[in-house]
Amino acid sequence: MNVEIEVLTGDASWPSVKPLFDRVWPPNAGEQRPGDSIEYAPAELRVIVQADDQPVCHVGICRREGIWKGRKTRIGGIGGVGTDPDFRRRGFASVALNAALQTLKDERATDFALLFCRPHNVDFYTSRGWKPFTGEVYAEQHGERIRFDALLPMVSYLKRAPHEGEIDLCGLPW
Ligand SMILES: CC(C)(COP(=O)(O)OP(=O)(O)OC[C@H]1O[C@@H](n2cnc3c(N)ncnc32)[C@H](O)[C@@H]1OP(=O)(O)O)[C@@H](O)C(=O)NCCC(=O)NCCS
């Protein structure tokens, strides 16, 4: 199997990863990302792992200027983490997450990375170095600023190490 990793522009690469999204989050399944009630920001960049030229794993990146403890902060949003069910437990999501963090590090403009997950995935991220953010997160949903507590926030420290306080995403979550 020939495996390659690439980082592509979010909009342009969407058609190539849409079938993968449908396999990871099948429409009308209990756990789904497209179509659930949360309104997400689109990915600006996508880390895509290709196996024999087929996308099998995806991690989205959304850069955002938000606010943490009253100060402007540059957040590297990570979202849409998913691996094709037939290609799991081969390290693809771990590699793609590392590539996403490396992309943010290389840009030298991100204070910390932030993702949101469901409770059953917390252990997956903590065992890869992510830390729970125990403060409050505010975000836009359906045109209003709300406390965003539908998912659990996890952070990966870069220049700053936030673990509590208030984060305002100043826009949609990812
Ligand atoms: C979670 C997910 C992305 C992992 O993808 P993957 O490519 O299999 O991940 P990796 O191969 O890098 O890591 C797999 C390891 O994580 C473990 N793991 C997977 N899901 C886990 C979870 N929910 N909690 C704890 N560990 C988990 C596996 O047991 C495996 O452990 P091992 O290496 O000891 O065998 C994949 O299972 C998936 O797409 N799930 C559905 C979508 C989803 O929930 N995405 C996360 C959104 S926040």
What about the largest sheet?
10 strands, mixed
What is the gyration radius calculated from CA atoms? 15 Å
| Elements, N to C (H/E) | EHEEEHEHEEEEE
Distance between termini? 31 Å
Structural class of the helices, strands and pairings?
alpha+beta
Ligand inventory reads: coenzyme A
User: What is the β-strand count?
Assistant: 10
The portion of residues assigned to helices is 10-25%
Tally of helical segments:
3
Q: Identify the CATH homologous superfamily.
A: Gcn5-related N-acetyltransferase (GNAT)
Topology:
Elements lengths: L2 E7 H15 L20 E7 L2 E15 L2 E13 L8 H16 L4 E6 L4 H5 L4 E2 L3 E6 L2 E4 L4 E6 L8 E3 L6
Parallel strand pairs: 4-5, 7-10
Antiparallel strand pairs: 1-2, 2-3, 3-4, 3-10, 5-9, 6-9, 7-8
The structure holds coenzyme A.
Describe this entry's structure for a reader.
With 174 residues, this protein is α+β, with helices and mostly antiparallel strands. It has a single domain (3-168), classed as Gcn5-related N-acetyltransferase (GNAT) (Aminopeptidase, 3-Layer(aba) Sandwich), CATH 3.40.630.30. Helix content is 21%, strand content 40%. It has three helices and ten strands, in the order βαβββαβαβββββ. Strands 1, 2, 3, 4, 5, 6, 7, 8, 9 and 10 form a ten-stranded mixed sheet that branches. A hairpin with a 2-residue loop joins β2 and β3 (54-68). The chain is globular and about 50 Å long. The protein starts with a strand and ends in a 6-residue tail after the last strand. The mean pLDDT is 95. Bound molecules: coenzyme A. Coenzyme A binds at residues 24, 57, 81-83, 88-94, 117, 120-121, 123-124.
